[in-house]
Amino acid sequence: GEAARLDVQQWRARSSGLLTGIGTVLADDPRLSVRPPGPDVRQPLRVILDSALRMPPDARVFDGAGEGGVWIFTACEDRQRIAALTARGARIEYAPGTAGTESATRVDIARVLAILGKAGVNEVRVEAGATLAGAMVQQHCVDGLLLYIAPLVLGESARGLMRLPEPLSLAQARRFEIFDSVAVGVDQRLRLRAQNRETACSPG
């Protein structure tokens, strides 16, 4: 609903950074901006996780980035691609997983969050597809969820919220606590905080 869409913009505006994956950029070409733009609207940092550096230099995420800017975290060292994206104003950060392992070819999510934290980016809002959302929850890199529930039933072919391995038992399931529930127009907004955080989000 329209009220929920406007509500999302307020949450974007309070964030230090908006984070998504390259899959979302290639599929949807989002701006990751606060709308409507204006002289008094602060645009947050736009953060893209792009292990193989597939980001198109003409992606809309670069439009109107302003002071917030665009950071691209990668595990790729292709100088030509880096130069093309730097020319568009992107800051490229090398953040691969552990050397000598399969994760070395992928961006290390915990390392990304550590780099952002050191840069003073203290509230990161993730707007991503099921793969990245699931990876962040699985690696305990999520403090909470902000969910909008519409009064619609889409059926079994609808895309899931997160891609996660099925737990062997309910005790192994990722748990969240609902601490806020508000009607936003025709929709319902839920805020949840993560439970079972005994395993900290730390670089691998």
Quick description:
It is built from five helices and eight strands; from the N terminus they run H-E-H-E-E-H-E-H-E-H-E-E-E. With 204 residues, it is α/β, with parallel strands linked by helices. The protein starts with a helix and ends in a 10-residue tail after the last strand.
Mean residue pLDDT: 92
Helical fraction: 10-25%
H/E element order: HEHEEHEHEHEEE
State which percent range the strand residues make up: 15-25%
Class based on secondary structure composition and strand pairing: alpha/beta
Separate helix tally: 5
Low-confidence stretches: none
Q: Main sheet, how many strands, which sense, barrel? A: 5 strands, parallel
Q: Give the strand order of the largest sheet, numbering strands 1, 2, ... along the chain.
A: 4-3-2-1-5
Structural summary, described in words:
- The chain has 204 residues and is an alpha/beta fold.
- Helix content is 24%, strand content 23%.
- The protein contains 5 helices and 8 strands, in the order αβαββαβαβαβββ.
- The chain has helices spanning 2-14, 22-28, 79-87, 109-118, 130-138, and strands at residues 17-21, 45-49, 70-74, 90-94, 124-126, 144-149, 176-184, 187-194.
- It has a 5-stranded parallel beta sheet with strand order 4-3-2-1-5.
- β1 (17-21), α2 and β2 (45-49) form a beta-alpha-beta unit.
- The chain is globular.
- The N and C termini lie far apart (40 Å).
